[in-house]
Each structure stands twice: as structure tokens, then as C-alpha cells.
Write a structure and sequence with these properties.
Pfam families: Sigma70_r2, Sigma70_r4_2
Radius of gyration: 21 Å
Helix content: over 70%
Structural class: mainly alpha
Keywords: Sigma factor, Transcription, Transcription regulation
Family: Belongs to the sigma-70 factor family. ECF subfamily.
InterPro entries: RNA_pol_sigma-70-like, RNA_pol_sigma-70_dom, RNA_pol_sigma70_r2, RNA_pol_sigma70_r4_t2, RNA_pol_sigma_r2, RNA_pol_sigma_r3/r4-like, WH-like_DNA-bd_sf
Distance between the termini: 39 Å
Order of helices and strands: HHHHHHH
Protein name: Sigma-70 family RNA polymerase sigma factor
CATH superfamily of the largest domain: Winged helix-like DNA-binding domain superfamily/Winged helix DNA-binding domain
Shape: globular
CATH topology of the largest domain: Arc Repressor Mutant, subunit A
Number of helices: 7
CATH architecture of the largest domain: Orthogonal Bundle
Length: about 180
């Protein structure tokens, strides 16, 4: 049996057969039934968007667990970023606190920047963070990373290109 073919019946069978199991798995991992329910739904949405080519019935749970594991990692990473940002906000006076809408946009942007940096080679993201967060010069970054200054310039160009692409993507999302 295919895990999901284009037929709604096979998806319905998959959902009916494995939703409770997946929800239980996610509840144990997340210790929160609401987050578990959200991620279980997100898992099945991913299956609908990108069904696998072929898989036997014995591998359905493995396939669902793999998707759910990735979603859990994303969820935990997002929460970690959000907590760090909220801690930095706690030090600010109430008068300069962003609105709830601005907070949501900022958290989403932070998450997207973090995901973009995670896709870059390690030295590129390190160089970018050292320059942007720590205000280090290219010479200082070169010493820190053990590369020449010219390499730091290349790393920064690569990171800034990715930032520009991300900005264009976010602008497109916000405009739509």
C-alpha cells in the first residue's frame, strides 16, 4: 500500500490509522498537548504537500515520525530564539516595548534569519555574527577564524547576499 497516493481515501486511511499514535508520540516529546496537536496536524499537511513516491505500510509510522522529528526541532529552535529575545526585551522600559503584532513579526524574522544562518557554511555564519553582533573588524574576525582578511570579505559578501535574498522573500510574504 502506498503511504499516500493522490487518492483522498489513502490519505484518510493514513490519518485515521496513525493520527492517535503520532499525537501520543508528540505529546511525550513536547509535554504539551496543544503543541503536540499543532505539530501532528503540520505533519499530515506536509504529507499532503509532498507525498512520498512509494512506501510499504510498515514504514508509514517511520515516515511520519521523521517528519514530526524535524518539526519538533524547528519548534524547539523557535522557542529558544523567542525566549532569548523576550529576555532581552525584559530589560527595556515598558514605553519602548513593541506591540504584540510587532513582536510576532520580529520573532518570525529572527527565526528566518537563524534558519538562513544555519544553511550557510559554519565560517560564513561565524564571520557574519562576529561582525554584526560583536562589532568585530574584518581583521579581528580573520584572526578569530584563522583565515586571511580577504576570506572574511568573501564570507561577508556571501552572508549579505543571503540576507538580501531573505529580505526579498520576507517582503514578498509580508506584501501578499
Amino acid at each position: 500500500m502506498d503511504i499516500v497516493s493522490t487518492s483522498p481515501t489513502s490519505f484518510s486511511q493514513l490519518y485515521g490509522s496513525h493520527h492517535s499514535w503520532l499525537l501520543g508520540l508528540l505529546r511525550r516529546r513536547l509535554s504539551n498537548r496543544w503543541d503536540a496537536a499543532d505539530l501532528a496536524q503540520d505533519t499530515f499537511i506536509r504529507v499532503l504537500k509532498r507525498p512520498p513516491d512509494q512506501a510499504c505500510a510498515m514504514r508509514e509510522r517511520s515516515y511520519l515520525a521523521t517528519i514530526a522529528r524535524g518539526l519538533c526541532i524547528d519548534h524547539w529552535r523557535r522557542r529558544q530564539l523567542e525566549q532569548a529575545w523576550l529576555q532581552s526585551l525584559a530589560d527595556r522600559p515598558q514605553a519602548v516595548q513593541p506591540s504584540p503584532e510587532q513582536r510576532a513579526i520580529i520573532v518570525e524574522t529572527l527565526y528566518e534569519v537563524d534558519a538562513m544562518l544555519a544553511r550557510l557554511p559554519r565560517k560564513v555564519s561565524d564571520a557574519f555574527l562576529l561582525a554584526q553582533l560583536h562589532g568585530m573588524t574584518y581583521k579581528q574576525i580573520a584572526l578569530q577564524l584563522g583565515v586571511c582578511e580577504r576570506m572574511v570579505k568573501k564570507y561577508m559578501a556571501q552572508a549579505l547576499l543571503h540576507c538580501a535574498v531573505l529580505e526579498a522573500e520576507l517582503d514578498g510574504l509580508l506584501v501578499e
